[in-house]
Amino acid sequence: MSTTQVKAYGTQAADADLKEIIIKRRELTPKDVEIDILYCGVCHSDLHTARNDWQNTVYPAVPGHEIVGKVTNVGDSVTKYKVGDTVAVGCLVDSCRACSSCKDDLEQYCENGWTGTYNGPDKHLEGQQTYGGYSQKVVVDEHFVLKVPENLDLAAVAPVLCAGITTWSPLRHWNVKEGSKVAVVGLGGLGHMAIKLAKGLGAEVFLFSRSPEKKQDAKELGCDAVIISTDENQMEAVAGKFDVIIDTVPYEHDLNPYIATLHHSGTLVLVGFLGPLESILNTAPMVMGRKAISGSLIGGIAETQELLDFCGEKNIVSDIEMIDIQNINEAYERMLKSDVKYRFVIDMKSLN
């Protein structure tokens, strides 16, 4: 297949900074959409991939799976989009589309393995992995392209494609609605979106935090109250209260105190931490109250479109700090220190 060269920002090794490189994008197939990238959000997964924290990175690596842009060309068989449309691409650019998960619009659980927007096998270009949104353009099958409501701040839409859908999917799956009682553990990129979206669905929303200084920020995002998780009295006061807890903490932590705050049949959903939990889990309150611990991974394409439409109706976007691509290495260091409210977004015209 013929290719086109485009500028990107990527890294050649785990211990190397990101810098400008040239990558290849495929020429359009009949179902492809070519997108000029305007904005790309910066996710912790980008950093983990660039630095090979998950031991699966193929170099050179070009991160970025929170993409917003304009359609510049379409394949002959494309029906959903036309040149000039404002569109988005999230964490997925392909799946088998034939397994039961894909048929249920849950491509993120594809039984034959979905293809990530970056660092996945590119079935169109033999021997090459997919390259992400830290680049001028991307070419994506129309099935995995999303419509963006025109009324939204396009830069602030970018993190909705990952931080937003990661929290929206469990809120929808566990049927959060008007009057539901939802708690969020951790106030960062994921946590701030969980608060906004749960509030938009009509829930009563609380934040669990170890940091009293986050109270004002949480209230401004729409939280009804903040519970200091290290304060036993505050934790006892919300025992048995919550229908759903969205746990966004990305490192190992004790779940037992939070399970005690679930209402009967309530569920704590892990969306931030991947890996073994070494603290002993006390199953007694789970058995006695039909409480559950579950996990959730991003969302399917239909669900992500539903989220974008909802954000358009409710005027919900992420709180962002805009950066130029030349500052991405500094942004990674700041992100490790949680020194951002709440998501970096790259203005991709800085690459040009």
Protein model, in words:
This protein has 11 helices and 17 strands. It is α/β, with parallel strands linked by helices and 352 residues long. The chain folds into 2 domains: 3-161 and 299-351, Quinone Oxidoreductase, Chain A, domain 1 (Alpha-Beta Complex); 163-295, 3-Layer(aba) Sandwich (Rossmann fold), CATH 3.40.50.720. Strands 3, 4, 5, 8, 9, 16 and 17 form a 7-stranded mixed sheet that branches. It has a 6-stranded parallel sheet with strand order 12-11-10-13-14-15. Strand 10, helix 5 and strand 11 form a beta-alpha-beta unit. Helix 4 packs across helix 5 (189-200). 44% of the residues are buried.
Question: What does this entry show, briefly?
Answer:
With 352 residues, the protein is an alpha/beta fold.
Keywords, separated by commas or semicolons:
single chain; 352 residues; alpha/beta; Quinone Oxidoreductase, Chain A, domain 1; Rossmann fold; 2 domains; 7-stranded mixed beta sheet; 6-stranded parallel beta sheet; 11 helices; 24% helix; globular
